[in-house]
Amino acid sequence: MVPVSYYILLSGVLFSIGVLGFLIRRNVIVVFMSVELMLNAANLAIIAFARNIGSLTGQVIVFLVMTVAAAEVGVGLAIIMMFYRNKKSVNVDDGNLMKW
Amino acid sequence: MEFIFFIILSLIAVISALMVILQRNPIHSALSLIVTLGSIAGLFIVLKAFFLAFIQIIVYAGAVMILFIFVIMLLTLRKDEFGQEKRKFQRIFAIIFSAFFLIELFIITNYTFFGKTEKILFTPADFGTPQALGRLLFTDYLLPFEIASILLLIAMVGAIFLARREE
Q: Are A68 and B151 a contacting pair at CB < 8 A?
């Protein structure tokens, strides 16, 4: 049995990599992939805790998180398509229409 | 045995996650992300979340990543749009910020869980199987399940509306 703290550390490392990618990349698709990475790190932590306390509720929560992530990807990629069509670019710095 | 699986899968996950953010070409990032999601699915199996491991493979590594790759291919990116990371100072601050974030997580984990021996509670034989999870989803968590289905419907309509070409 692997201690739950190891899973939490792995989840933290993956989440931090996601944060790093979100901040350093300018390509909007890779930024979006970093968000997916963070969601998966959180899912891993929830599953590890669910296993530790022997409850299935955590797995139900992860199931719902996956549903929301799938919906988010569908809408997000449609927005990226619109962004590309209007700006002819996928650089996040070009999305400055609402910038003060 | 379980520990060996954990070490191997977590190494694959971390290395391919780093590849996701360090590759210049978004297609390579997407392929690395598939590897990460697959190894996380393996970790789900180690944690006895069998149903979710297969959902992870089918929904995430299958459907979602195919969608990503479709969009990357539809956008017909030119070579100069792959890289062009200007703003050096922003990158330095990003690295400092995420390092601090990681250290904070380490400290919190150290205070709360680390070094303590967890005793595993009794787990039923069908823990994490589709039967057990399905029974829970259709009884105790029926309302969130239905709301999730409505959310998917709304997202589908929204995606079609957004991606439509205006005449």
A: yes
Torsion of CA B45, B116, A55, A50, to 10 degrees: -50
Q: Which domain holds residue A57?
A: 4-89
Contacts for B74 with CB less than 8 Å, ≥ 6 apart: A81
The two counts, helices (H) then strands (E), for chain B are 7, 0
Contact A40, A7 (CB under 8 A): no
Distance CA A96, CA B79 (A): 23
Q: Count structural domains, chain A.
A: 1
Q: What are phi and psi of A79, to 5 degrees?
A: -65, -40
pLDDT band of residue B87 (cuts 50, 70, 90) is low
Phi and psi for B25 in degrees, rounded to 5?
-85, 125
- CATH number for the domain spanning A17: value is 1.10.287.3510
Q: Is residue A100 part of a domain?
A: no
Q: Does B129 touch chain A (CB under 8 A)?
A: no
Chain A residue numbers touching B85 (CB-CB < 8 A): 24-26
What tens digit of pLDDT does each residue of B26-82 get?
889 999 999 999 999 999 999 888 999 999 999 988 899 999 999 888 887 665 554
Q: Is B53 on the interface with A (CB under 8 A)?
A: no
User: A23–B94: do the CB atoms touch at under 8 Å?
Assistant: yes
A13 assigned to some structural domain: yes
